[in-house]
Amino acid sequence: MINNLNFEIISKDGIARNGLLHLNHGTIKTPAFMPVGTGGCVKAILKRDLEENGAQIILGNTLHLWMRPGMDIIQSHKGLHNFIQWQKPILTDSGGFQVFSLKELCKITEEGVKFASPINGSKLFLTPEKSIQIQSILNSDIVMIFDECTPYQIGSHIITMEEACDSMKLSLRWSKRSMDEFKRQENKNFIFGIVQGGFYENLREESINGLLDIGFNGYAIGGLSVGEPKEYLHQILEFISPKIPDNFPKYLMGVGTPEDIVNAVYNGVDMFDCVMPTRNARNGWLFTRYGNIKIKNSKYKNDLNNLDPTCDCYTCINFTRSYLHHLQITKEINASMLNTIHNLHFYLNMMNEIRESIHERKFDIWKKNFLEDRSSNI
């Protein structure tokens, strides 16, 4: 099964599927997790270690790279791949979620978003056209449309259907403008639409149908993991995923925990990104097969065991929990580096196991065992 993005589904187990996503800087195996390198750098880990741990594709952010270092610097390097010396695929978020996070500091109009730079206070104006122009300069393998991320609530106010509808329809209009600009740029890469609509199923379906009418290379599910109750995330995901045609890659944005990813794969999702493994690593929160470890807790001070007995990453092979505890407590830079190596290895190895289990038609068994192991809390 193949479409114009050269996305092949090579095996399925129920709704879960293995695929090959052929991009201009290489082919990635799906389901895939994308480490987040917002400003052109995945924090606290070297490119060498990313590659050694099996990262296939990373994510950058349009808004942050536009503000710093700026497009003149990126152009002088002939694109983001050369600037950061990463010659594998890159997906760039359009800046829509960052606008969402700056909501109180920006003004959203039909034309675009006006806001003050959080770096130097300069006045900026980001439009769908500008976002696509920036991503074309970055030479992103996968370009994301510029959208408005609909929140679950603002303060104590739950977003109403009318408010979610207005936001979703604005995103659809911006999606069309994004695609028109993508074509004007004669971009040879690929572009994904983003499904919005809050937590209202009828709006999500309207968003999907509108995006399919425009015609993108793949489809992302946005507006989740924005403060909603966990059951809402699963409910909306189960509703949305089957309504996106199977011959397109499906990308769940900004999610999430290992458990969330496993359940999303079960619902046919192919691509994921989240800051959780790297951000949690820097804060001493480590993922293991048998539950999460807060390494700065005093009980690890004299613990001579390796971090995760099932893990073969550089950190687990070489260092004890006691040493990692010491680094975290004394705020050594090496704590962030070693913790990040482990957490990303955990996520990327989890995706390897998922792909293998789908290929062997054993995903249900693997999923059951994995979730049971994770809840055992060593």
UniProtKB/TrEMBL annotation:
Q: Which cofactor does it need?
A: Zn(2+)
Annotated binding of substrate, by residue: D93, S94, G95, G96, F97, D147, Q196, G223
Binding of Zn(2+), residues = C311, C313, C316, H342
Give this protein's Gene Ontology molecular function annotations. Answer: metal ion binding; tRNA-guanosine(34) queuine transglycosylase activity
Q: What class of enzyme is it?
A: transferase
Residue span(s) of domain tRNA-guanine(15) transglycosylase-like: 14-375
User: GO terms for biological process?
Assistant: tRNA queuosine(34) biosynthetic process
- Pathway terms, separated by semicolons: tRNA modification; tRNA-queuosine biosynthesis
Q: Which family does it belong to?
A: Belongs to the queuine tRNA-ribosyltransferase family.
* Its job: Catalyzes the base-exchange of a guanine (G) residue with the queuine precursor 7-aminomethyl-7-deazaguanine (PreQ1) at position 34 (anticodon wobble position) in tRNAs with GU(N) anticodons (tRNA-Asp, -Asn, -His and -Tyr). Catalysis occurs through a double-displacement mechanism. The nucleophile active site attacks the C1' of nucleotide 34 to detach the guanine base from the RNA, forming a covalent enzyme-RNA intermediate. The proton acceptor active site deprotonates the incoming PreQ1, allowing a nucleophilic attack on the C1' of the ribose to form the product.
In its UniProt entry, what is this protein called?
A: Queuine tRNA-ribosyltransferase
